[in-house]
What we know:
The complex is a heterotrimer. Chain A is mostly beta strands. Chain A is 5% helix and 25% strand. In chain A, the strands form two sheets. A six-stranded mixed beta sheet of chain A has the order 1-4-3-9-7-8. A two-stranded antiparallel ribbon of chain A has the order 5-6. Chain A is globular and about 40 Å long. The mean pLDDT of chain B is 91. Chain B is built from 13 helices and 24 strands. Chain B folds into three domains: 2-101 and 247-339, FAD/NAD(P)-binding domain (3-Layer(bba) Sandwich), CATH 3.50.50; 106-243, FAD/NAD(P)-binding domain (3-Layer(bba) Sandwich), CATH 3.50.50.60; 346-419, Orthogonal Bundle (Arc Repressor Mutant, subunit A). By secondary structure, chain B is an alpha/beta fold. Chain C is α+β, with helices and mostly antiparallel strands. Chain C is 30% helix and 25% strand. Chain C has helices spanning 14-25, 42-45, 60-77, 95-110, 120-126, 148-161, 205-211, 277-290, 336-353, 376-380, and strands spanning 4-10, 30-33, 49-50, 88-92, 116-118, 136-140, 144-145, 165-167, 172-178, 181-186, 191-199, 218-222, 225-228, 238-241, 246-250, 256-260, 264-265, 298-303, 307-310, 316-319, 326-330. In chain C, strands 1, 2, 8, 9, 10, 11, 20 and 21 form an eight-stranded mixed beta sheet that branches. In chain C, strands 5-6-4-14-15-16-13-18 form an eight-stranded mixed beta sheet, sandwiched between helices. Chain C has a three-stranded antiparallel beta sheet with strand order 17-12-19, with no helix packed on it. The mean pLDDT of chain C is 95. At the A-B interface, strand 2, helix 1 and strand 6 of A face strand 8, helix 4 and strand 9 of B.
Amino acid sequence: xxxxxxxxxxxxxxxxxxxxxxxxxxxxxxxxxxxxxxxxxxxxxxxxxxxxxxxxxxxxxxxxxxxxxxxxxxxxxxxxxxxxxxxxxxxxxxxxxxxxxxxxxxxxxxxxxxxxxx
Amino acid sequence: xxxxxxxxxxxxxxxxxxxxxxxxxxxxxxxxxxxxxxxxxxxxxxxxxxxxxxxxxxxxxxxxxxxxxxxxxxxxxxxxxxxxxxxxxxxxxxxxxxxxxxxxxxxxxxxxxxxxxxxxxxxxxxxxxxxxxxxxxxxxxxxxxxxxxxxxxxxxxxxxxxxxxxxxxxxxxxxxxxxxxxxxxxxxxxxxxxxxxxxxxxxxxxxxxxxxxxxxxxxxxxxxxxxxxxxxxxxxxxxxxxxxxxxxxxxxxxxxxxxxxxxxxxxxxxxxxxxxxxxxxxxxxxxxxxxxxxxxxxxxxxxxxxxxxxxxxxxxxxxxxxxxxxxxxxxxxxxxxxxxxxxxxxxxxxxxxxxxxxxxxxxxxxxxxxxxxxxxxxxxxxxxxxxxxxxxxxxxxxxxxxxxxxxxxxxxxxxxxxxxxxxxxxxxxxxxxxxxxxxxx
Amino acid sequence: xxxxxxxxxxxxxxxxxxxxxxxxxxxxxxxxxxxxxxxxxxxxxxxxxxxxxxxxxxxxxxxxxxxxxxxxxxxxxxxxxxxxxxxxxxxxxxxxxxxxxxxxxxxxxxxxxxxxxxxxxxxxxxxxxxxxxxxxxxxxxxxxxxxxxxxxxxxxxxxxxxxxxxxxxxxxxxxxxxxxxxxxxxxxxxxxxxxxxxxxxxxxxxxxxxxxxxxxxxxxxxxxxxxxxxxxxxxxxxxxxxxxxxxxxxxxxxxxxxxxxxxxxxxxxxxxxxxxxxxxxxxxxxxxxxxxxxxxxxxxxxxxxxxxxxxxxxxxxxxxxxxxxxxxxxxxxxxxxxxxxxxxxxxxxxxxxxxxxxxxxxxxxxxxxxxxxxxxxxxxxxxxxxxx
Lengths: 118, 441, 388
């Protein structure tokens, strides 16, 4: 499912198991394949999946706390906690749990174009 | 959903505004059609209720003006102000039934902001809506009957490495048995979950105290003290955390409801009569009105719809309400017994380490709250505490830190919980993009 | 509980706090009576602007005295109130507004302020995130911002350290005057005696003045305000449309705070002002037009406040004409935050020395004995139902 085209490092600069997926599929998908990018990696998902599910089956964070830089990966999955807002390359933010994944989405866990990404 | 069905059957044409992409609330959440899941497996003995409710709703969709993925961000001047497809608009109404549901109630644990920690509800949604487990090795932790149900749903779908850590002791549950006769069916269900999990080899520990969720950048273990006081650690990559439910009350407040404190649940609820009536042509129902669970929500929704129809002058069959009234009150009484059986660990608020994050949005710690409370002229009320510390001021508006904020404030001030107040709701109840205003004059 | 205090201040807002602070620093015995929490009303709910540009010309001496106090406040108080000398940009989008900017700038320069006039090229270079339909702007580097939620408690704490008494949850029910002495009755804390009484009751100040026969027509209203989620910090100065449609600032944490017009009438008999959703949407739209880069920002919270307004849009400050020893300081018409320390210092002058060097005659309550002409802002900045 993953086609890494750049190596990923975690918040402390250590490339380790941090990029192993958080979510584990428990059932077969019937939706068509869609292609999206996450922090520069080209990935695929299935129509009908949320941005959150698509991203977290391929990584383990969606955003970073504005105040501590710590990674966050959502919490409630029901539009309530607001801890899954992910950036797009165009500078918009999507609530990952309530946004369906779509072809061509270019997602970023840090603010695109800023050095520390907060 | 239930209220809409009743209204539609009586010839009214209700508008259903739902922030979720599908109707059904969280209890009877519709499964994602793009994922190969068997609802019988997910809902077990509840399947028939789930199926019947969703079928009735579908059959009436030609009468119901159903607007999914639509956020009611404010109630003002007899109108629901909504956001749909990124655009703001308003919907005037003759009568308003609010059924906003509930979220998990959370007592923070050090490390609860790590990726891999989800709310207990989220663990179930990941499965029902996305066909995913939240990890390979999942620990269901906290204090809720849903810990068992969620663990069982995971087990039935093939997850093998699971554990349940219940912060309430077994003896406390037995003590609460007295109240359980209000809903023997639900109680029997709980016992059967317990037996089934045992048979499937899922360890269930009760009376534990959660100490810390460990990990660097993601969950790697959970540490807890057993009832004996001995500390244990379970390696895991995900934790589903929940300590019962917390009603969504923002819209009810914006609609003008007044609130009362329930000392058993240690929560504030909108005041309403036995039909859910909270004001003129204003009704609250479901878990947003009083924690009762999915079955109570179905009955309560119907009841509110009938009472509203009556208030609007539509004739309804006599006696239609009384059966529903007794059902709702019986199920809510049962939930109160459950709340005693699955204790909200409020006493932990006093001993949480100072550096634990309470407010995920604004990065406010327990120590920040205690320091503010200890200052000369320091706040002893939650809205003042929010003003000074920013706890509850962020994107989620205190949904997840609110209960702990109140407990920590009360403990730090040495005051009873009901005296520290309730976080006031402010529109928009969820974030509203600037671009939503573009179509406005 | 009673005892003889030299000064009692009714109202624990920012004006009451600074008055207590200066009196205590001057060695005077002073007690503040606050009916709820200190800084609970407009002192804590306002936009937090410490703006010198565009003030009523009669207010400059008071404003400048106040700004000097703000500038050293955190040192005096020993705690942060998130004071930032951000500067303030007044923005014109129409030609006639440019004239207005020049007029404001001239007035401010007359009081010794440095005001920069910025054309489109300078604006594009310095603030590239601003929309392109802006004609001109004036910048004053001495303008600043602070966190109003933190300010009043901090000033009160400082006053307490100097010996002031501050009593919360103490509502004044009656005020009498016998033998040259005020007797202030409360429901919860007995009665207080005082030689001097300061009416710093904000939007409720008119009621207290009326007890002494000094009738002032007042109304309560509040602006629609909102705040966005935290976003990358780009907007350093606070910025205001000179047409009054919107004023905004970004704090270093990243949130953008916005206030707009028209103001809404406060709920009768209540201590809150609701924000009509249409006003939030309208201010959102204006902000998006002025700063296109914020077009996708999310609003996370709206609020307003209960501010006391008068027809001529300036406060009442100074001694009462009806009773010796009574001083009024209320009705700040939505711009009290900046001048509050100046008012506190002036009241301290008056109470402890009998006079002040700061000209405040324009704000005397006696102006309401005759007919007062409504300020043009009354028609422009309020719902028509609010200002009746």
